[in-house]
Design a protein that fits this description.
The chain has 125 residues and is an alpha+beta fold. Helix content is 43%, strand content 23%. The protein contains 5 helices and 6 strands; from the N terminus they run ααββββααββα. It has a 6-stranded antiparallel beta sheet.
Length: 125
């Protein structure tokens, strides 16, 4: 995906159409999990990646040449789930996965709900 010469995707569906089939299924499953955890969140393209936003960015996700990534939009939430995310850690804020080793849906749901709470608390101050 990275290094494509095509213009940047304007919508999440356009982005998904460009993802190689072996990663598209994994990203669609991740997208469905995030939507279920944050049904009122808006899907956007930010930094040329799909993201979910509700009172601020919740999470980003993307496909790359040999893996997919989930980007948790908060250092505090990354620390909160650090032990469970450790097998997927690839760098500051980046959690890599593959179709045969996805990040568990229950963990993604808990991360998204923590981000929703964090964004709501920040906005209420």
């Amino acid at each position: 995906m990275k290094g494509d010469k095509a213009p940047a995707s304007k919508t999440v569906d356009d982005y998904m159409a460009r993802v190689p089939p072996e990663f598209r299924k994994a990203l669609q499953a991740l997208r469905k999990t995030i939507k279920a955890a944050a049904p009122d969140a808006e899907e956007v393209i930010s930094y040329q990646m799909p993201a979910f936003r509700q009172k601020g960015i919740l999470v980003y996700y993307a496909a790359f040449k040999d893996h997919c990534s989930l980007f948790v939009g908060s250092e505090k939430v990354r620390r909160q789930f650090a032990a469970e995310l450790k097998p997927f850690e690839a760098g500051k804020g980046t959690h890599q996965f593959t179709p045969d080793q996805p990040i568990p849906a229950r963990l993604v749901t808990r991360i998204v709900k923590a981000r929703l709470a964090e964004n709501a608390a920040r906005r209420s101050k």
